[in-house]
Amino acid sequence: MIGKDNDGNDIGIDAGKLIGKHLAVIGNTGSGKSYTVRKVLEETWGAAGHIVFDPEREFHTLRQVYPYLIVDGPNGDMMKGDPAVLARFLLESGRSAIVQFDDDEHLEAQQEFIGLFLDALMMMPRELWKPTFLVIDEAHRYAPQDENVVSRRPIHTLMSQGRKRGFTGILCTQRLAKISKSAVGECNTWLVGRVGQVLDRNAAANNLGFPLRSPEALALRTLNAGQFWGFGLALSKLPVLISIGATRSQHLTLGQSWSPTPIEGLELPTPHLAIGLPNGLGAAMPFILVVAVIALSRFVFF
Predict the structure, then answer these.
(1) At what angle do helices 152-161 and 107-122 cross, to 10 degrees?
(2) SS3 (DSSP) at 186
(3) Which residue from 42, 68, 92, 101 has the highest number of Cβ atoms inside 10 Å of its Cβ?
């Protein structure tokens, strides 16, 4: 149960119907968008793996209730390292993870990491395919409508081809008009909160099926924090206004902090622990080691 409608009826999200069908979460700053994503993750825990790309470092407190692996950031369990190595490790281990970006990590570096991670994920062997929700917060940064950044094509691929692998994109943005239509157009379930900017509001109303001058469309700019219109395969056939319920984990506000306790017995992939490999090098390590051994043997015996 993610919340209640205006009549007090419980509204749930059907994780089974969400798998492979994708979700869009739309809302201005202060609308409760991140809080709503947190609630969705809490309610779908156990139905699928979770991988959260968290550029604003808001979601690590989910560890208060579930054993998410925290990747990078000030209290991370491990460094990001090579994106292909991380992608394989998460699928093989079955761990859910929150992938944080550092404050000094430029947007281009974030885009490159997400792009390489998703490319590696989509190329994994069939035996590693499993239901996995991939949350991309601030998705307009990584799949913009009018700019061909390195992460846009991999996100398009995830959204168009992820279903058969069990991979589900959860795209979160405050600027619906700025996110790639090819990416967000694959979403079969929507949660739309307060949207003030005219272009964004018109796009949101159109996706909800509201005429642009209808009371429902105009009221999108005045929704309270935590009020979201929901509709689609995993929620409701018709749009329903939902008041999002309380979360079990803490949603930090300005000035608050929380440090996670270590996960006991955590086993990490060797390349992350041994040396800080540049992106793309981790997957080549077996080949590099073989070449090194051959070279060393020739040196010793000749």
Answers:
(1) 30
(2) coil
(3) 68
In terms of C-beta density within 10 A (0-12 exposed, 13-18 middle, 19 or more buried), how is residue 139 classed? buried
**Percent of the chain having pLDDT more than 90?**
79
What letter represents residue 163's amino acid?
R
Each residue of 73-103: pLDDT tens digit?
888 999 999 999 999 999 999 999 999 998 7
Residue 266: both structure tokens together: 């955590």
Query: Which helix (H) or strand (E) covers residue 267, if one does?
Result: none
CA pair distance 57, 195, nearest whole angstrom:
23
Asked if residue 201 lies in contact with residue 193, where contact means CB atoms within 8 angstroms, the answer is no
Q: What are the sequence ranges of the domains in the chain?
A: 3-301
Superfamily the domain 3-301 falls into = P-loop containing nucleotide triphosphate hydrolases (3.40.50.300)
Note whether 245 and 206 are within 8 A (CB).
no
> What tokens appear for 107 in the block?
């947007």
**Phi–psi pair at 227, nearest 5 degrees:** -95, 125
Which residues neighbour 61 within 8 Å (Cβ) at sequence distance 6 or greater?
249, 250, 251, 252, 258
pLDDT at 281 over 70: no
The pLDDT of residue 278 is above 90: no
What percent of the chain has pLDDT above 70? Answer: 86
Residues for the chain: how many in total? 302
- What pLDDT digit, counting tens, does each position of 95-105 carry? 999 999 987 88
